[in-house]
Task: structure prediction
Amino acid sequence: MKRTTIYLEPELEVRLKMEGLRRKQPMAVLVREAVEAYLTRDPVDGPPGGGGFASGHRDTADRAEELLDATGFGGDRPGSKSASAKRAARPPSRSAAGRPKRRR
Result:
């Protein structure tokens, strides 16, 4: 078992001590039981919408560009440069000191 420190409001500490006396158990036992009950009472659902769009594929994030290209999402209008061509064609940004900024 690992030792830890918790901070309680004075009223809560008194209530915990009183319950320990009533049950003839140390406060540590009551705290462990309470934490265990709290953490196991409801299954963790995750964030709202999490898993709502599950594709069943585990590599979707790794293949994002390939998948978006296949669907045409974000595709360029006829006669316009692609986003990567626009990035390559623009002049490098300059810092306040006049030196080119590093792109990440």
Q: What stands out?
A: The CA atoms of residues 41 and 89 lie 57 Å apart. The radius of gyration is 29 Å. The mean pLDDT is 79.
